[in-house]
């Protein structure tokens, strides 16, 4: 397998992705915090809700969570430039867990990767791109 010498298209920067993550962490944290007030079952449900949040939004046609929408970036398939779908988003969420295990090395990987991919991007064959280059046609929940 050959790795391209340079990125094959425009990609979101580390800073854009970090700010989007921070916004999403606030959204998920508030929901999880409310649910965790009812004990272990609530904490468990809050964790599931957090994972479901990423699967639903990143697997949707827009490929955007609330944070990604605020930062005008989105997740798309590396080969297709289109939505990764819910199965791809589920794989990406599992990859996020793996990315965080070795001191968040999988999240930092994009800093030196030619395609600016994290480990979870590689797991799901996805990339995070600017909306200006890959326009969003539909936001989840809109008719």
Outline the structure in words.
With 143 residues, the chain is mainly α. It has one domain. It is built from 6 helices and 2 strands. It has helices at residues 14-36, 40-59, 66-70, 85-100, 105-108, 119-124; strands at 73-77, 126-130. The protein has a two-stranded antiparallel sheet with strand order 1-2. Helix 1 packs antiparallel against helix 2 and helix 2 (40-59) packs across helix 4. The chain starts with 13 loop residues before the first helix and ends in a 13-residue tail after the last strand. Mean pLDDT is 91; it is low at 1-6.
Span between termini: 42 Å
**Which consecutive residue ranges, at least 5 long each, have pLDDT under 50?**
1-6
Helical content stands at 40-55%
Overall, the morphology is: globular
What is this structure, in a nutshell?
This protein has 143 residues and is mainly alpha-helical.
List descriptors.
143 residues, mainly alpha, 6 helices, 52% helix, 7% strand, disordered N terminus
